[in-house]
Amino acid sequence: MSEIDQLRGEVLAAVNAATDVPALEEARVEALGKKGRVTGLMKNLGTMSPDERKVFGQLLNALKTEIETAISAQRAKLDTAALDAKLASETMDVTLPIRPETKGSLHPISQTIDEMAAIFGAMGFTIAEGPDVEDDFHNFTALNFPPGHPAREMHDTFFLPPDQEGNRYLLRTHTSPVQIRTMLNEKPPIRVIIPGRTYRCDYDMTHTPMFHQIEGLVIDTETNMAHLKGCLQEFVRMFFGVDDLTVRFRPSFFPFTEPSAEMDIGCSRAGGELKIGNYGDWLEILGCGMVHPNVLKACNLDPEVYQGFAFGMGVERVAMLKYGIPDLRTFFESDLRWLKHYGFAALDVPSLTSGLSGGGLNR
Ligand code: DAH
Which single residue of 119, 140, 157, 168 could bond 145 by disulfide (Cβ 3.0 to 4.6 Å)? Predict the structure, then answer.
């Protein structure tokens, strides 16, 4: 009896004194483990007389339960204390003044894409996206670039090492592969814009290895070049905020459009300063054309039934024109002074009713 009382006192003291989980476990093993003190006494029961065994057995079982309860209670206490300590170490003083230098703002690229999406969205376009890592089929073949065609080389493509089956993936050189993905996945009528990152191995004042494009694609049964012209003219007028801005189309070549054109907008370069407007000079702004029948065929669309137009332009390029940014590379230098100068308020959501960012070059 007194032996059990003494044991209880010692074990409970050890349990309650445990200040961490390993110490608690040690106390448990010492009492209830295979070679523990309580377990040892239980093993002795077999040597006792039946009467003794009954009394002693009950006492030992009660002790065992008491110790187990004490261990759980101590464990809960340790867990709560650990959580309290963690919470205490993670508190912050919300009354501290904010740090003025960490004010966030939208990058001009994001702002420009948002503005374009607002304009095309109002015309009924939705946004489509595709992967940056593309295969040869979507980036070239389905877009009517024949194998070995020089235009493939013109794109200065970044190729990835071939995979186990010998497939050669690449970083998409333009957003046009998403035209293919869209036509393969959706039924006409299609009206999408495709903003995204594109990659070419090139670096100077007007080229960076990664840049952004925005692509447009319209497929329907009666779409023609006049729709293309009206759509793009309306876009540049809204984007640059010049209501009567004139556009000019020059014949051009892209494998995936026929006929192909480049669109210019009116500008002035007088005094070395670029101004958008009808001043008699011209500035190239985008490539476009009617989707080539071979491209429609590659997407299982019958060219006798469907036609459409497509266009593509560089996001940085039009942002540079709109906001008067002279060097493309500065977009990606993460210079906070530059970002502060050209960055846009994080809550400045462009829309045709509340307005795009105002003023362009005259901001
Ligand atoms: N993919 C072309 C490029 O990167 C741009 C382009 C031109 C896209 C004409 C088009 C288009 O959709 O119709 O140079």
Answer: 140
Report yes or no: 134 and 124 within 8 Å, Cβ to Cβ. Answer: no
Atom of ligand 1 nearest to the CA of 288: 13
CA atoms within 13 A on the CB side of 85: 6
Q: What are phi and psi of 131, to 5 degrees?
A: -75, 150
Distances (CA, A) of 253 to 41, 177, 284, 290, 298: 95, 17, 14, 11, 19
Q: Which residues of the chain have pLDDT under 50?
A: 359-363
Q: Using CA atoms, how far apart are residues 348 and 107, in angstroms rounded to an integer?
A: 11
| The model's pTM | 0.71
162: left (phi over 0), alpha (psi -120 to 50) or beta: beta
Minimal CA–CA distance to 179: which of 171, 191, 170? 191
Q: What is the pLDDT of residues 125-146, one digit of tens each?
A: 999 999 999 999 999 999 999 8
- Taking only the tens place, the pLDDT of each residue in 166-183 is 888 999 999 999 999 999
pLDDT at residue 135 in the model = 93
Alpha carbon distance 30, 24 (integer Å): 10
Distance 237 CA to ligand 1 centre (A): 20
Burial (CB count within 10 angstroms: exposed 0-12, middle 13-18, buried 19+), residue 189: middle
Name the helix (H) or strand (E) containing 320.
helix 315-323
At which residue do the structure tokens 């004042």 appear? Answer: 205
Residue of 215, 285, 296, 309 to test ligand 1 pocket, by largest number of atoms within 8 Å of CB = 215
Tell me, what's the pLDDT at 362? Answer: 36
Protein residue closest via CA to atom 6 of ligand 1: 312
Half-sphere exposure of 4 (CA within 13 A, CB side): 16
Q: Please state, in angstroms and rounded to a whole number, the distance separating the CA atoms of residues 232 and 238.
A: 10
DSSP H or E segment with residue 322: helix 315-323
Q: Whose CA is nearest to atom 8 of ligand 1?
A: 312
b/e 11-35 (16+ beta carbons within 10 angstroms → b): bbebbeebeeeeebeebbebbbeee
The answer to whether 188 touches 306, Cβ cutoff 8 Å, is yes
What are the DSSP calls for 215-235, one per residue? EEEEEESS--HHHHHHHHHHH
